[in-house]
Amino acid sequence: MKIAVFGTGYVGLVTALGFAKLGNKVYGIDKDMGKIESLSKGRVPFYEPGLQEILKETRGKGLVEFHTNGAKAVEEAAVIFICVGTPALPDGRADLSQVEEVARFIAENIRDYKVIAEKSTVPVKTSYWIKRTVNLYKKESVEFDVVSNPEFLREGSAVQDFFHPERIVVGTETERARNLMRQLYKDFDVPLLFTDVGTAEIIKHASNSFLAMKISFINMLAELCEKVDADVDMVSKGMGLDSRIGERFLRAGIGFGGSCFPKDLKAFYRIAEAEGVEFPLLRETERVNDLRPAKFIYKMKRAMWNLRGKKIGVLGLSFKPNTDDIREAPSLKVINLLKSEGAKIVAYDPAACKNARAVLPELRCASSPYEAAQGANAISLITEWEEFKTIDWKRIRESMETPLVFDGRNALDGRKLASLGFEYYPVGKRPIGNFNG
Ligand code: UDX
Q1: Has this prediction a pTM greater than 0.85?
Q2: Cα separation of 151 and 98, whole Å?
Q3: How would you label 289-322 residue by residue, b for 16+ Cβ within 10 Å and e otherwise?
Q4: I need a surface site. Which of 187, 206, 234, 389 has the fewest CB within 10 A?
Q5: What phi, psi does 9 have (nearest 5°)?
Q6: Residue nearest to atom 21 of ligand 1 (CA)
Q7: Is 208's C-beta closer than 6 angstroms to any atom of ligand 1?
């Protein structure tokens, strides 16, 4: 099948290359010339494991091409995916101007039947606006359908998620569109859930908001556990063994970030409130999350008395491991709070330093965790990159001025660290170490 994908960011590019790898002919369209040039030369312009290899393979087979102008793509494709950005407006609602722009472009170039598929996360009823826009601006009397086919791709494992999803949700209005989407997903042996379009749009926002709610729930439990000397990781395990609850997304830590959860959560309660439906659960989920970095700093201050002039090695900048994405990353808030306390910061991240320095130009980035720890009064682990677990902590201990580790993700082996002479401060559990110093 021929497919057009508008927007070659994290979602669009995975979608484009995923369908190309399955043997479809795919046109990736983006107005960012730099991105298109990079992709046309075979370089993925961001870090996402496995994507570079698929780009090489599919380009080699002539299954994917990239353009800034999508006219040919619209003409040839049977299905047109809209994967452009839907950033948050200052009031939290989604800015849909890029979606409108693509809809207008499609309208001007549509000559025969197409399925236009929303993949970016959009507010319920967006399909109505796409349909209306195409109808208003189209040059010829052609039929088309707008469907909602939300993505559930996690950055860092997006390739795996594309090929092995747990479900595929498609909101459609016609049998014709349903058949085409069924054909597109014929190689996937997973539940294909057909709904009406608005329901599919809601499923996406509801899924992300629910997962965010689970995280804020466990993070509040973490606070309680710290007060009563309980262990939040065991609480999470004990709860999660109940299959009605499930253990995933119950990892306590420094809060959720990324381009989806914070934005989708806010957009979703705004949508509900605009319809006259108060949704305090979601507002509270956000409030709990917003407080995490400050609570973390408070914990550091309780252990270190003052932060002024102290050197802090920050491990991890990306909003989660295996990505260079720093959008809404808790690390940024932690660093700003540390700065306002007068601390000196040296950060290390395996992939995200460049992006972090684009928003925090004064940030000192080390080239290894050892360099970040050199002469430090404390280490703060903000992102649980796998490599932090296998660091030579003895070497780190020897190079630090004072041996404190604040683990914002409960990623490290606290007992081992304590045996090496560290004071180890996890989230939602009792600190471990020799606190006589
Ligand atoms: C999310 C959804 O998972 C995906 O289905 C959707 O389509 C896009 O948004 P993503 O933002 O890539 O994916 O990351 P995800 O793995 O969901 O993590 C989001 C944030 O929650 C991260 O900051 C992560 O560190 C945090 N998190 C996740 C926790 O704090 N605890 C957990 O138990 C799980």
Answers
A1: yes
A2: 18
A3: bebbbebbbebbeeebeebeebbbbbbbbbbbbb
A4: 187
A5: -85, -155
A6: 256
A7: yes
Residue nearest to atom 26 of ligand 1 (CA): 256
Q: What is the pLDDT of residues 303-319, one digit of tens each?
A: 999 999 999 999 999 99
Say if ligand 1 is within 6 A of residue 83 CB: no
Q: Which residues pair with 69 in a beta bridge?
A: none
CB atoms within 10 A of CB 418: 18
Q: Is the CB of 331 under 6 A from ligand 1?
A: no
Token pair 């002539």 in the structure block, residue? 62
Taking 80 as the threshold, does the pLDDT of residue 393 lie above it?
A: yes
Q: How far is the CA of 347 from the centre of ligand 1 (A)?
A: 22
The answer to whether the CB of 406 is under 6 A from ligand 1 is no
Residue with tokens 């996890």: 426
CB 406, CB 432: distance < 8 Å: no
What's the confidence (pLDDT) of residue 260? 93
Both tokens of 110, joined, read: 């549509």
Confidence band for 434, pLDDT divided at 50, 70 and 90: confident
Q: What is the tens place of the pLDDT at every residue in 199-234?
A: 999 999 999 999 999 999 999 999 999 999 999 999
Ligand 1 centroid to residue 261 C-alpha, Å = 7
Give the distance (Å) from ligand 1 centre to CA of residue 6.
24
How far does residue 154's CA lie from ligand 1's centre (Å)? Answer: 7
| Confidence label for 435 from pLDDT (cuts 50, 70 and 90) | confident
Residues marked active site are found at: 260
| Cβ 72 under 6 angstroms from ligand 1 | no
Structural domains for the chain? 2-195 (3.40.50.720), 205-286 (1.10.1040.10), 292-425 (3.40.50.720)
Mutation probe of ligand 1 site: the residue of 122, 249, 261, 388 with most atoms within 8 A of C-beta? 261
Determine contact, residues 58/331, Cβ cutoff 8 Å. no
Using alpha carbons, select from 428, 409, 385 the residue that is nearest to residue 230: 428
Structure tokens at 70: 């999508």
Cα within 13 Å of Cα(183), Cβ side: 13
Ligand 1: residue whose CA is nearest its atom 7? 152
